[in-house]
Amino acid sequence: MAERTFTSDQLAEYDGRDGGETFIAFEGEVYDVTDSPMWIDGDHESEHVAGADLTEAMADAPHGGESLQGFPVVGVLID
């Protein structure tokens, strides 16, 4: 199976609103956080929105990439 790729515009479609899938990118990988109770309607504690690359934002977060362990990687961000 070929690896799924996302542009930033395509990733933005997975913003978790209205019950849709909730994807975020970190260090080039795209994660499905749809089932996380920390992401409600595409919002993470009023700090971040889904459908975006959160690599830079994680530098200021109280946690790092380890918080994404256990979430499925659904593809890679290509831009």
Description of the molecule:
The chain is of the alpha+beta class and 79 residues long. It is 11% helix and 24% strand. The chain contains 2 helices and 6 strands, in the order E-H-E-E-E-E-H-E. The strands form 2 sheets. The chain has a 4-stranded mixed sheet with strand order 1-6-3-2. Strands 4-5 form a two-stranded antiparallel sheet. Strand 2 and strand 3 form a beta hairpin. The radius of gyration is 12 Å and the shape is globular.
Beta-strand residue fraction: 15-25%
- How would you describe the shape? globular
Write down the overall mean pLDDT: 89
Multimerization status: single chain
Write the layout of secondary structure elements.
Layout: E1 5-6, H1 8-12, E2 23-26, E3 29-32, E4 43-44, E5 48-49, H2 55-58, E6 73-77
Parallel strand pairs: 1-6
Antiparallel strand pairs: 2-3, 3-6, 4-5
